[in-house]
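User: My collaborator sent over this chain with a note saying "see what the structure looks like." That's all I know about it. Can you take a look?
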Amino acid sequence: MNDNYISPLSTRYASEQMQYLFSADMKFSTWRRLWVALAQAEQQLGLAITDEQIEQMQAHIHDIDYERAAFHEKEVRHDVMAHVLTFGECCPKAKPIIHLGATSCYVGDNTDLIIMHKALQLVAGKIAVVIRNLSDFAETYKALPCLAFTHFQPAQPTTVGKRACLWIHDLLLDLEDIEFVLQNARLLGSKGTTGTQASFLELFDGDYEKVRQLDRIIAEKMGFSACYPVSGQTYSRKVDSRYLNLLSGVAQSAAKFATDLRLLQHLKECEEPFEKKQIGSSAMAYKRNPMRSERICSLARYVTADALNPAMTASTQWMERTLDDSANKRISVAEAFLATDAILNLYINITEGLVVYPKMAEKHLRAELPFMATENILMDAVKRGGDRQELHEKIRQHSQASAKAVKQEGADCDLLSRIAADPAFGVTLAELEEMMQPENFVGCAPMQTEAFLRDYARPAVEKYKNAEVEKVEIKV
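Assistant: Without extra context I'll predict from the sequence alone. Here is the result:
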């Protein structure tokens, strides 16, 4: 156990649910389910296949002899034929008709499509959990003013809840794309060695309508609405690229959130959960490092880069099929889903316990508010009869002088005192300080948050309220 490489995606990061989907049991039991579906469809369309043969196959879907399959694969150097032989040994009556008319991609490719479909459904369910968590957070803090940033420089204020809506919106875009792909998912079906279905046309004595019905029956039995209308031996590898681009989008959204949170934790305005006995640093005992957010960013970088694998594979396939896709997709597709699952586990965990420090948010906002209020001060002074151009120049001079004192001398901002002392503005310090109410500078942020949650966020995830998502446990 400890003298072999084991992927940290299994030992540290991905959930049991996602790991099962890419397990040997899931893969090879699905192969057997597909062989059963093929036999049932062929029987339904008139081939000489008995109920007894099908029942024997159904009875042995899950009792897979992996040692025997490994023995056969070592001998025949072909994974699908190794499992055909192994299945036939425990289903002797069905042995003559297992895999009848099919090529390896019938089980291999259809299984990959089934697994990716189920895995993407799991991803969608977890995104919905994150959106619900963030929606509750945004509702709670919809009116809490905080300093907004452009270029990570202080900018016009927003609210903590409105900022959370930006994170939600990214996820809604991801969910919209995912739902489109799920709704349009197809199986490969039974297309044969070059996609011409020649072997099935032979089996059905030239009856093309039965060949077409075969695909429809198999799709229905495996829970899909249809099969891809044309293919080579494999389904188009653009499908893999399409799926991993979706996962890359989720990774991008999560990394944006996690990066924002890392910056906010530096500012001490908002931070990820920190457990009672958690150690932030082996040397600096006081540290509260944002390790969950950092892990999201780290894994997201991997998923985003991994999406290049199926893109390159899709673009280099030859004619009706080549085999330089196989080894790559075994790794790249599975690991993209496992890593995305790990990202969403972390995202769920963080958003279940996000901590906000309102006093720190207020402190930072009030330190910058005088500069942001200068436009209001200018307008009020003009209303009192002042010259807009002259007052604008005075504000520019006072602002730069005050900012210089803050930066070079570490002084507190004294911009309001400077303006109050300038008779051109005709306003007292008390009057200026009365204007410095943070909630007066957040614009429509609270209303935008309410409307966005009501009209977009909450309705989008309502359908996922009964999704089977296991309770997230962060292992390390």
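A starting point for your reply to your collaborator: The chain has a mean pLDDT of 92.
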